[in-house]
């Protein structure tokens, strides 16, 4: 067969795969919205008007859309912190704790080196945040490499320890003279720059760069190939000479460092101060997004964007329709169930 015909066939197959994927996602969104509409009807609310309010509050103005991106940024980063260890078969449930430790280390840097210029201080804060998250993730990674305990258990348990450590430092040493549950406001040199006359800060672009690096790493590098080999069959990878214990520790630390970067960005950008219990469950949302998207880079971007629309629109529904925020959690739960049921669901409907 001529090479030109082969190339055309490959193009047609690729286009068909895109259409199939688009159809699957469209059906999933439709099912989720249908289920959520039923809940709204049971609650005595108009689902059509509620969906209009969500779209108006998120896409109806520049401010609304920018707030979606602001909410999306930390969840996208923490989703990457989960997706990277997943490639070698590790389940990192500790993004929340790693985010807190990254914020803690970055806050120490912001309060200690507040006389440095911004071009020195900001990279230092980002580096300290990554160190804090990486060190916190080293504990479960190292215990996993020793065969002592599963990383899922340790990362989950450490989530409750990190906020207590942050609270210890805030209440004991760093608190503001006017308020004991937060630190003094960071100096301007320790604040991430914002763009487009909005609250979108530098961390948004850092998140996109990290996403591109993650995609290139897992798809085109030898390291990505070895990670997939370890994740697919650790014993076979070990027999072929791959240092799986070393990979477990290093990749877990990198995942923690990414989550720590998200924590540093929150205190240096979104808040400009370290608050006790500042996270709002960002690490857990990152875990949810990573699993909803099956660790796919494009899926992480799309899913984090959709979840941000739901969260931002949910805040508006509380004001416009009097809908309790718990209903938004139900919508997120429906989304998770439908996505997790995707293989069986689409097999039955032949898509």
Model regions low in confidence, pLDDT < 50 over at least 5 residues? 345-351
Derived from helix and strand composition plus strand pairing, the structural class reads mainly alpha
The number of helical segments is: 14
Measured as a percent range, the helix fraction is over 70%
Give the strand order of the largest sheet, numbering strands 1, 2, ... along the chain.
Answer: 1-2
- Give the topology string: H per helix, E per strand: HHHHHHEEHHHHHHHH
Question: What would CATH call the homologous superfamily of the largest domain?
Answer: ABC transporter involved in vitamin B12 uptake, BtuC
Identify the CATH architecture of the largest domain.
Orthogonal Bundle
Mean pLDDT: 83
Count all strands and give the number.
2
CATH fold naming of the largest domain: ABC transporter involved in vitamin B12 uptake, BtuC
CATH class of the largest domain: Mainly Alpha
Task: Please state roughly what percent of the residues sit in beta strands, choosing from under 5%, 5-15%, 15-25%, 25-35%, 35-45% or over 45%.
Answer: under 5%
- Count of domain modules: 2
Give the biggest beta sheet: 2 strands, antiparallel
What is the CA-atom radius of gyration, in angstroms? 22 Å
Principal-axis shape: globular
Distance between the termini: 30 Å
């Amino acid at each position: 067969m001529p090479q030109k015909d082969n190339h055309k066939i490959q193009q047609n197959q690729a286009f068909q795969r895109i259409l199939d994927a688009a159809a699957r996602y469209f059906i999933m969104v439709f099912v989720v919205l249908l289920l959520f509409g039923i809940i709204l009807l049971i609650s005595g609310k108009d689902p059509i008007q509620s969906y209009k309010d969500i779209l108006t509050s998120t896409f109806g103005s520049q401010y609304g859309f920018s707030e979606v991106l602001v909410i999306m940024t930390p969840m996208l980063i923490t989703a990457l912190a989960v997706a990277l260890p997943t490639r070698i078969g590790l389940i990192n449930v500790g993004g929340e704790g790693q985010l807190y430790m990254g914020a803690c280390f970055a806050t120490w840097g912001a309060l200690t080196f507040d006389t440095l210029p911004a071009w020195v201080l900001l990279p230092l804060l980002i580096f300290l945040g990554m160190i804090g998250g990486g060190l916190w993730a080293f504990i479960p990674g190292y215990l996993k490499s020793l065969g002592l305990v599963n990383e899922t258990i340790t990362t989950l348990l450490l989530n409750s320890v990190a906020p207590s450590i942050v609270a210890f430092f805030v209440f004991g040493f760093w608190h503001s003279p006017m308020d004991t549950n937060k630190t003094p406001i960071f100096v301007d040199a320790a604040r991430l720059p914002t763009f487009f006359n909005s609250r979108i800060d530098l961390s948004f672009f850092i998140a996109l760069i990290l996403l591109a690096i993650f995609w290139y790493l897992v798809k085109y590098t030898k390291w990505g190939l070895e990670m997939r080999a370890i994740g697919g069959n650790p014993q076979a990878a070990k027999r072929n000479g791959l240092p799986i214990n070393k990979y477990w520790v290093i990749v877990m630390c990198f995942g923690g460092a990414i989550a720590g970067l998200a924590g540093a960005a929150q205190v240096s950008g979104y808040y400009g101060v370290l608050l006790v219990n500042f996270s709002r469950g960002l690490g857990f949302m990152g875990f949810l997004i990573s699993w909803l998207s099956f660790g796919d880079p494009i899926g992480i971007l799309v899913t984090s964007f959709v979840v941000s629309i739901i969260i931002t629109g949910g805040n508006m529904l509380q004001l416009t329709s009097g809908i309790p925020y718990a209903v938004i959690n139900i919508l997120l739960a429906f989304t998770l169930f439908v996505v997790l049921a995707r293989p069986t669901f689409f097999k039955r409907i032949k898509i």
